[in-house]
Amino acid sequence: MRAVQVPDTKGPFELVEREIPEPQAGWIRIKVQACGICHSDSLVKDGTWPGIQYPRVPGHEIIGVVDLVGEGVKPWKNGQRVGVGWHGGNCGYCDHCRRGDFFACNVALLTTGISFDGGYAEYMVAPAEALARVPNELSAVDGAPLMCAGVTTFNALRNSGAQPGDVVAVLGIGGLGHLGVQFGVKMGFKTVAIARGKDKEPLAKKLGAIHYIDSREKNPAAELNKFGGAKVIIATVTNADAMTAVLGGLAANGVLMVIGAAGPLSVDPILLISGQRSVKGWYSGTSIDSQDTLSFSASSGVHSMNEVFPLERAAEAYERMMSGKARFRVVLSMEG
Ligand SMILES: [Zn+2]
Ligand SMILES: [Zn+2]
Q1: 148 CA from centroid of ligand 1 (Å)
Q2: Rounded Cα distance, 327 and 336, in Å
Q3: How many CB atoms within 10 Å of residue 319?
Q4: pTM above 0.85?
Q5: Ligand with an atom nearest the CA of residue 105
Q6: Rounded to the nearest whole angstrom, what is the distance from the C-alpha of residue 216 to the centroid of ligand 2?
Q7: What residues have their beta carbon closer than 5 A to ion ligand 1?
Q8: Residue 109: count of CB within 10 angstroms of its CB
């Protein structure tokens, strides 16, 4: 099979021929149809995630088809459409897992494309518990970005405490944010989009935002307060100052949900105390969260806007994503 691997820390991507991997007991082999490129793939490319064993194939936004089922795997059959995201597995028996906090597993937390080879390849193997079912209506390319960008925004929103009719703001209208606005609208929130500059306003409105705040022109906190403040703000940006600037726009008991990785965040304690506001991080989700994201997206018409590249152009596709030239998501398609 063909795969694109990082040979060593800080190595360039290389297209290689590899043996098709065999699934061990409890694992499944997947014929990969599409794999999204995520900013977190830089952890593999730049060697910034401790303990990665190289060479490593990145990629954790995978849609494909079950190709071979390993020993002892119960529910999956050859030919089923499946997705694999960031969460690649957990032990199931440590104290955190027994409380349902699988993201905090401290025995065998597996991350797709980091702990084991990911989706920049024609085939891959993954633990059975890492698989999500893919609805028929969703193409592989449409589904791929939902496996990380999608589930991260969807799951943060549905766990934010916001109720239908509440004002919810999405900070940043890029790969995550353009999905966040759509999810917010379809979940019945009064969704406000915040970004820098005028150019994203027409799209934000088209995606269903009731209001657009250009944070270059206007103070986003003051603007949010014209709506009574936001019950929830989903921060998808990678700029901590942009997060600090919206905090004053949270309603009483409001929550800033942080899903963009930024530098140290400055928070005024008075703001938190006086309005019982909070700042919270959210882990993307496990395979059932991804499955719910795919299902919700298919039934409600949420779409990721993608640029599509063939596998052999992975290096170019990755550059396009990391340089910010790609406006939304970049997806590798193995089907030409
Ligand atoms: Zn990701
Ligand atoms: Zn565990």
Answers
A1: 5
A2: 22
A3: 15
A4: yes
A5: 2
A6: 44
A7: 38, 40, 148
A8: 18
